[in-house]
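Me: I'm a chemist; would you kindly supply a protein sequence with its structure tokens?

Assistant:
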Amino acid sequence: MSATVTVGPLYRADAQRCAELEELLFPGDDPWSAQAFRDEVSAGHLYRAARGPGGELVGYGGLAVVAGPPQAEAEIHTIGVDPAWQGHGVGRALLATLLEAADQLQATVFLEVRTDNEPARTLYESCGFTVVGVRKRYYRPSGADAHTMRRDPPGTAPAG
């Protein structure tokens, strides 16, 4: 990742920029609104921002813990990176930050990703995720299918 990008907290004040990126990244589906981002941050979920050299938000990611120990589970709710910053490790840095928090809880992590989003699927697989199912017509209104992916906590035997 470029040394000029830092990852830190996502704030409610970042919600409008996140919504703008959503419109750019997910035009054929139902992009999140600024209010949806404010709600996620207010709910106490772990949201992180990647910021460029001038402090501008160039990416975001969110994780929700949906079940606590002893069998903790978490979900990656979203990861988005400004197209101008894609391919520079920003998404990987955001994902690593979210997974670090999940690993502290020894949580199994789930996510959905469009079946045609090869770069994202490749990133997730490189971080230990495996495809465990397909959700037909998951994304609206496009009707695109999604892979459900799972990553077991480090040091545990994969479920099966």
Summary: The longest strand covers residues 57-67. The chain has four helices and seven strands.
